[in-house]
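User: Hi! Is it possible to get a structure for several chains at once, not just one? Here's what I have:
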Amino acid sequence: MAYTIVEEKIFCSGHHACPGCNAALAFRYITNTLGQNTIAVVPPSCGAIISGPQPLSSMRIPVYQTTLEASAASAAGIKRALKAQGKDHINVVAIAGDGGTYDIGFQSLSSAAERNEDIIYICLDNEGYMNTGAQKSSSTPYLAYTTSTPGGKPTAKKNVAEIMAAHRIPYMATATTGYLDDLVYKVRKAKDIKGMRFIVILVPCLDGWGVADHEGAKISRLAVQTGVFPLYEVENGIKYALNYGSQGIPVSNYITRQKRYRHLSSEQIDEIQQVVNADWENFKVKFNA
Amino acid sequence: MSQGHTRMLLNGNHAVAHGVKLARPMVVPVYPITPQTPIVEKISEFQLQGVMDADLMTMESEHSAMAACITASLTGVRVFTATASQGLMLMHEMLHYASGAQTPIVMCNVNRTIGSPWGFWPDQTDSLAQRDTGWIQYYCESAQESLDTILQAYWVAEKVLLPAMVMHEAFYVSHALETVDVPDQEIADTYLPPFSPYHRLDPEIGASWGNVVNQDMFYRHRQTLGQSMEKAIEVALEADMLWEKLTGRGYGVIEEHRCTDAEIIIATTGSMAGTAREAVDQLRDSGMPVGLLKVKLFRPFPVELVRRALDEIPRVIVLDRNFAPGTGGFLHQELKAALYGLKNGPVIYGYLTGVGGTNVPPDKIAGLVRESMEEEPVNSSVWKG
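Assistant: Yes, the chains can be modeled jointly so their relative placement is included. Here is the combined structure:
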């Protein structure tokens, strides 16, 4: 599958991200695809740094930086006020990290989904609190090292994609910086849908994961090809569509390129492989139904 | 005024809902909490009946309700919400965020005890604990005053660009029925022009809010917030005078009742002011030179007006239905600070009474005044049941 990428120049160079940052890459394609007619909400996160300190901005659209718990509620407030003023044509997008989405911001996200707020919510998932120095979030995968789980995280990654799909919102999708054409396709599709739209984008954090500056896109591509992070869409909680899934590449190819897994024994890598295999078998059923 | 209003039997919360309807907010994010719920229920009814054209957002928490208020206000519409007690506590973070963004949100907080342990009674500690959040704070003693103050609060908030909290106490005001003059919509419309902020979130304007700032910019933001607060007293007086011109009802930012020639002044806020007024009248009848100072506007604190009111008065008795552990009654603290350096200022008695909602009838207040004659004032607040 290939999609044309049409970019409007909303995201500018000279922003404050680390060299090679995949979150900045995602920001570029999200905002450039949504276009000028957009207001963005960003909670404390690397996204807030990338957006730029006052009075500078890396984006040619209004950006409202809210508190960590309140992205979805803040975005909903903007959209309701726009509607009240007859400016319904303006897109409202919240772009939050995994901490602000899976953890502290989840209450307001889940409720915005229940109310079917007319907003796009995008989670830039780097699987940890990377902006504060790489601590564990509930998105951190099983056995991954973080500074708050130095022995490896003892529990599984929360499956936010399925939780959000279970809200039966009009559109839920997973994407990653390894497949930018797919990412752009999903953002554009979300833009044209009314009601709550949710996209979780896997964005490797080069520093937090221990990945070379030029390897971000490659790592996120391997996450898909190994079956760790399949790319798919769910409409109204029931209509599943797979975009890119496992190509049978061993998980070790993905894991051994990251410092956050370097403490693992070969038995532990095997264990992760077994879990990924089982998950993939269960997951495929959704597409055959 | 015999024209321009409808006389209705309303409880304090329904009076607030009528005030809100008259103010025509466009977005109303809400979350229920006792004893605030009748405000939200009445607004929901108004909306269903089609007599109020507001977008009601039924949020999942007070934190989110305030988050939505802030962004809706920043996007250029008038907003309202209501809360109480733990709900206000949960909003605390967002209260700072609202004043930092200088959003003229108006909120009614129904004063109720804060946990733990649980309680549902009138006690002002919830909102007084928010006194440093940069919100204007009004304390009302009756349903009529609450209705009128909601409209005044919008007038002031939108003029100085600060959020405003209107307080009345649980049950004594929130659930007690009174006859209330509900002004006609034309009067409210004459008073309150449509909200049209200069700065707003709009792609055509392109301005952002909330980004990281350096130390100097933060310093200047705080300074600007302070300047808005300073202006608010004068603007509140203006708002009150205009309202009085339109409806015949004015309250001032402080009220002085029988303070001429008074040797003892009872100072208090909220519903206790009504009870204290009764006590003052009783004591005057028995020949005691007593007066009442009601502090209606608590933030910004009307320091100069209070100093003028209490200059040359020998004795002030402060009644606090609130308690800050480690310091005492909030009004007691504020008055001591406000009167500092006044050459002929009063001695001040700080009494913690009615804390947790215990009943304080006029006789009790009269008794406290008499007791004070036998006591030397101490610096800290004293528990008086």
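Chain B has two domains: 5-247, 256-383. Chain B has a mean pLDDT of 97.

User: Great, thank you!
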